[in-house]
């Protein structure tokens, strides 16, 4: 097969006949590998965002005021406006300890949470997805992953330097093409996942739509555990210079996560072992 770099160079983003996704499919290239340029930021902002990313695992219930005060105590000269901007970049989603009334954007339909008291007993019963911030030496990128909740298998993932709805929809469509359809698909209420382009894929495949309650900690616990594993077992241990090296590193990590990493919650089996049992059942 032609070397990967040569195949990437053959991609024509201006081609009006074949879109980028189709060209990637024909050349056997993962689309996210094309978008390897990290988003640039000021050095101090990158430092704050990396600390924010780690802080989330300790205090996900902190809002903008507490975080501003916390970072001011750490010695940063930061105000609420700047903190709010950086929280948005790292995709910080405050988890509320008490129920919080929220004004819902009526332009985006929200769907009920279907997983409460649901027994997840088989593969492809429930899938879930989310986006997380990935810090790099001179910038950052975003990672999306789709997981099967029964087996914890990472079914698909992708990198991008934006959090666009089209990107999320393409990853969803690709995952369905590879693995078929789940019965239920769970997301948070992020605008990417409530967008028409994303929702229409689920509806056209007759997949039930489930959405986390805003600010509810336990609704998306499995994907949050995945992000903690990815970051503490890999991302924080390596300081990636560019998107290509990040992509290769994550490719190796997810291969390890699915095929060789023993999960205590799976009785020390791997996600692939559990997921592949569906063909035997």
Automatic annotation (TrEMBL):
InterPro entries: Integrase_cat-core (IPR001584), RNaseH-like_sf (IPR012337), RNaseH_sf (IPR036397), Transpos_IS3 (IPR048020), Transposase_IS3/IS150/IS904 (IPR050900)
Gene3D superfamilies: Ribonuclease H-like superfamily/Ribonuclease H (3.30.420.10)
GO biological process: DNA integration
Pfam family, one: rve
Integrase catalytic domain: residues covered: 108-279
GO molecular function: nucleic acid binding
SUPFAM superfamilies associated with the record: Ribonuclease H-like
PROSITE patterns the UniProt entry points to: INTEGRASE (PS50994)
Origin: domain of life: Bacteria
PANTHER family: TRANSPOSASE FOR INSERTION SEQUENCE ELEMENT IS904, TRANSPOSASE INSF FOR INSERTION SEQUENCE IS3B-RELATED
Name by which UniProt lists this protein: Putative transposase
Organism: Chryseobacterium shigense
